[in-house]
């Protein structure tokens, strides 16, 4: 009888401990909240209120915010994709668009919000943050914090010396060609990327500790293999090179010079490290400024923010294994930028669930589209057709 009571008490304590861990009443960030991040009933709201889901660090609005001029315009009513005519309004609904902003010649032509969103909302970037990290690497390179992109990771992160990451060059990280073994499969329950999310988001493990011992799979610099840990390691390199957290460097290197209008936030793991591979949150207008910086070849109001040749080197690669068809039929890759097939001075930032900053140098257009689209992957080629139609519309 006594043994039964002991077992009952032990089980009760275990259940209580599990419930405490799940709900964490001492913290606003608990597995009970994080597990609902992608739930159909919550994701629209979550994607513009990530401060409710993860801890974060704030990037403050610029001391002198820059406001775009406005020249009101319209969207095309239709575009052509795969031999058929698609209604723009239907495409916007089907891809669960939350915001759309079109710049032409540096002026806002279209700015629209959907699904309850408004101009003050911070929309989560998902992997568009990868391009922001690469942009910060470019600025650190220009400013002398990272003299050579051919330097190995271990030069800036000595903790990784002797591990697979240690000899990988910054250049090959930028090209998603580290050779590290990792699968980025979002539709497989226990893929490497899903396990990364579980360990960091639910179990509270540090993101750096989670990826530090990933093994080499192939030689570096030989093939495009898009994986989020490449960007997280770039963030680690950047933090050590500049001596500041990623978001603090972004504050001084991008948010102030570009005159960002609103505070942004960068989501953190439980140890206070930026989730560099995914989780910047900003307004449409401030995302548009990042696109315009690239459109202007790294210049902003007379200041050369990026290295002079960075945009060309980032978007016009000669490596055949980076061209469209090497893993992605509709797009190729550069320095953390996507290049559409048969590109005509076009490239884009891109994140899961349908986040994009599109740049058309030829048409002098930047388009920002945020979405909550569970079918984002099969919609990618159609999204490119949509962006081209919007860019060409006068």
Automatic annotation (TrEMBL):
Any Pfam family the entry gives: Beta-lactamase
Domain (Beta-lactamase-related): residue spans on this chain: 90-371
Protein name: Beta-lactamase family protein
Upper taxonomic lineage: Bacteria, Pseudomonadati, Pseudomonadota, Gammaproteobacteria, Oceanospirillales
The organism's place on the tree of life at top rank: Bacteria
Membrane spanning stretches: 7-23
Organism: Alcanivorax quisquiliarum
Keywords: Membrane, Transmembrane, Transmembrane helix
């Amino acid at each position: 009888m006594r043994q039964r009571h002991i077992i009952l008490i032990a089980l009760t304590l275990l259940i209580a401990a599990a419930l405490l861990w799940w709900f964490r009443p001492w913290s606003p960030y608990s597995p009970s909240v994080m597990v609902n991040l992608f739930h159909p009933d919550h994701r629209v709201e979550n994607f513009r209120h990530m401060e409710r889901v993860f801890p974060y660090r704030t990037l403050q609005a610029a001391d002198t915010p820059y406001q775009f001029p406005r020249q009101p315009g319209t969207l095309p009513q239709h575009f052509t994709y795969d031999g058929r005519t698609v209604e723009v309004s239907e495409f916007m609904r089907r891809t669960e668009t939350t915001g759309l902003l079109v710049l032409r010649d540096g002026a806002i032509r279209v700015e629209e919000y959907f699904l309850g969103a408004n101009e003050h909302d911070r929309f989560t970037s998902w992997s568009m943050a990868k391009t922001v990290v690469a942009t910060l690497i470019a600025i650190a390179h220009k400013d002398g914090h990272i003299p050579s992109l051919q330097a190995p990771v271990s030069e800036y992160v000595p903790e990784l010396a002797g591990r697979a990451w240690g000899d990988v060059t910054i250049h090959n990280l930028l090209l998603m060609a580290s050779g590290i073994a990792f699968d980025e499969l979002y539709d497989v329950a226990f893929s490497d990327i899903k396990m990364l999310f579980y360990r960091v988001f639910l179990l509270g493990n540090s993101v750096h500790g989670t990826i530090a011992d990933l093994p080499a799979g192939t030689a570096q610099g030989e093939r495009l293999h898009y994986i989020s840990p490449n960007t997280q390691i770039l963030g680690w390199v950047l933090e050590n090179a500049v001596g500041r957290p990623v978001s603090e460097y972004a504050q001084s290197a991008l948010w102030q010079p570009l005159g960002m209008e609103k505070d942004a936030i960068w989501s953190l793991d439980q140890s206070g490290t930026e989730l560099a591979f995914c989780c910047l949150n900003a307004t449409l207008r401030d995302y548009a400024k990042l696109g315009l910086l690239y459109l202007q070849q790294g210049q902003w109001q007379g200041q050369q923010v990026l290295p002079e040749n960075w945009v060309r080197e980032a978007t016009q690669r000669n490596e055949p294994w980076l061209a469209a068809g090497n893993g992605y039929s509709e797009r190729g890759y550069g320095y953390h930028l996507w290049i559409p097939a048969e590109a005509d001075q076009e490239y884009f930032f891109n994140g899961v669930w349908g986040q994009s900053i599109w740049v058309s140098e030829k048409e002098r257009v930047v388009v920002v589209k945020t979405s909550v689209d569970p079918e984002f992957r099969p919609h990618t080629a159609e999204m490119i057709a949509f962006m081209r139609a919007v860019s060409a519309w006068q």
